[in-house]
Design goal:
Layout lengths: L7 E5 L2 E6 L5 H7 L5 E4 L2 E4 L2 E3 L5 E4 L3 E4 L24 E6 L1 E5 L9 E6 L1 E2 L2 E3 L2 E3 L4 E6 L1 E2 L2 E3 L2 E3 L4 E6 L2 E6 L2 E3 L8 E6 L2 E6 L2 E11 L5 E3 L2 E11 L7 E3 L2 E5 L10 E6 L5 E3 L2 E3 L11 E6 L8 H6 L9 E3 L2 E3 L3 E6 L6 E3 L16
Parallel strand pairs: 2-3, 3-6, 4-7, 5-8, 6-12, 7-13, 8-14, 11-15, 12-16, 13-17, 14-18, 16-19, 17-20, 18-21, 19-22, 20-23, 21-23, 22-24, 23-25, 24-26, 25-27, 25-28, 26-29, 27-30, 28-31, 29-32, 30-33, 31-34, 32-35
Antiparallel strand pairs: 1-2, 9-10
Length: 362
């Protein structure tokens, strides 16, 4: 098949605008596109996995453009990044944005960690797609810089809707991450960058953890999270997260008793600012457990987790500011069990806590 049979291209400066129609190959368009190209994908279902390793590629899905798993998986840099599937086959990503010269740790739990990257892929943008049902990640960004993921629907991945890891300055804006069918799903949106990540205006539902925050200095603002066991989880040792203006509602009914549940869990994190969030409807019907709105606790790091593996010591929650949040209709609004003496609680509009002076103080 000739390239001219697959792509319609118009030169724009040093890049191109490339249109892909249903029945044609998006991946072939990506491979042929020079730096700075725009690839516009028309409506239709495309059974492909996509790998982007070229700088400044903009991939745009027009309304109705959907990416679903192919009949035969294709291995790439993102294969097995979430470990094996339940049937022992490698996990796969729908869209894999990957730099060159990745040095990876061995998979332990959750996802693989990136040690270093020789040449980050830069300036990739993906918008407008429905990406559905990939076994590891619907979209995975590893070893990248200045990536923007905006206005996509990421549905029905059993492990991760989206992950950025070993990258710098990723922006995740106004995506919808959720499900169309019953079943357990692990993490909606996770950030494990070397530095800088901005997560704004996303809607996340039906995942065990809605927002998984493992990046120092992460900016997580104005997102909506519902129907989760943990709405936002700040991992042990993560520093200076800003979690502001998020709306986190409705714990999964009866689905979280084994693990507990909290809208916002500051789990051995340091120097976080938890401000002006709305937390509502975190209740459970399990008489043996309660569900909390905001939890600030130390983590002894006795059970296996990715962040605790990196720390190697217990994580003490310290220097966190919980301010101006509105909490209502929860089993318990705020729960604190941290040995750090400098966690601050001010002007939270709430009714119940396990310590005096937390609700409405300051």
């Amino acid at each position: 098949m000739r390239k001219s049979d697959i792509l319609i291209a118009v030169h724009e400066g040093h890049g191109k605008t490339i249109r892909v129609k249903q029945g044609q190959s998006i991946q072939m368009a990506i491979k042929s596109a020079p730096r700075g190209s725009r690839i516009i994908v028309e409506a239709g279902e495309y059974k492909e996995q996509l790998t982007i390793k070229t700088n400044d590629i903009t991939l745009i899905g027009e309304s109705g453009a959907a990416l679903v798993p192919p009949d035969l998986p294709v291995d790439n840099e993102c294969t097995s990044f979430a470990g094996p599937n339940d049937d022992k086959t490698p996990s796969q990503a729908g869209i894999c944005i990957a730099g060159a010269g990745l040095d990876l740790e061995n998979f332990v739990s959750e996802h693989t960690r990136v040690k270093s990257v020789q040449r980050p892929v830069r300036g990739v943008k993906v918008s407008g797609f429905t990406v559905k049902g990939f076994s590891g990640f619907n979209i995975l960004v590893i070893g990248a810089k200045d990536t923007e993921i905006c206005g996509n629907k990421l549905l029905d991945s059993p492990k991760y809707g989206f992950l950025t890891a070993g990258s710098t300055n990723t922006k995740v804006l106004e995506n919808e991450i959720g499900s169309t069918r019953p079943g357990f799903r692990l993490i909606g949106l996770c950030m494990d960058n070397f530095s800088k990540v901005k997560v704004v205006g996303n809607r996340i539902s039906d995942y065990f953890i809605g927002l998984c925050i493992q990046t120092d200095g992460a900016e997580v603002e104005d997102n909506q999270v519902s129907d989760a066991c943990f709405g936002a989880f700040l991992d042990p040792g993560v520093k200076h997260v800003r979690l502001r203006g998020n709306r986190i509602t409705n714990a999964l009914p009866n689905g979280c008793a084994r693990f507990g549940a909290a809208a916002i869990s500051v789990d051995g994190a340091i120097g976080a600012r938890i401000e002006n969030n709305l937390v509502q409807g975190w209740k459970t019907e399990d008489a043996q457990n309660i569900t909390a709105g905001i939890v600030v606790v130390d983590d002894p790091c006795l059970s296996p987790s990715l962040s605790c593996e990196g720390l190697g010591i217990p994580a003490v929650a310290r220097g966190n500011v919980v301010k101006g949040n509105t909490l209502r209709d929860n089993d318990l609004d705020i729960f604190v069990n941290a040995t750090g003496s400098d966690n601050v609680f001010r002007r939270n509009r709430c009714a119940t806590s396990n310590m005096d002076g937390i609700c409405g103080s300051g």
